[in-house]
Amino acid sequence: MGTDDKAANTADKAKGKIKEVAGKAVGNERLEAEGRAEQAKSDAKQAGEHIKDAFKH
Asked: Dihedral through CA 19, CA 24, CA 27, CA 32, nearest 10?
């Protein structure tokens, strides 16, 4: 996995977590759901990168 990809995925996951927590804090279910979705998207990207790495070796 490239360092840039890993950093981007980590940043996306953190951004999603912030949105989720902010949504919970203010009672905004839509913002909370967006945060969870961003985290899931980041996890999926990271899993894809791990699979690509596995086939490179």
From this structure: 40
Quickly tell me which residue has 């909370």 as its tokens: 32
**Long-range residue pairs from 6-9, CB within 8 A, at least 24 positions apart, any chain:** 6/46, 6/49, 9/42, 9/45, 9/46, 9/49
Q: Are 49 and 9 within 8 A, CB to CB?
A: yes
- What is the residue extent of each domain of the chain? 3-56
Tell me the CA distances in angstroms from 30 to 8, 9, 37, 44, one per residue in order.
23, 22, 10, 21
pLDDT per position as a tens digit, 14-53: 999 999 999 999 999 999 999 999 999 999 999 988 888 8
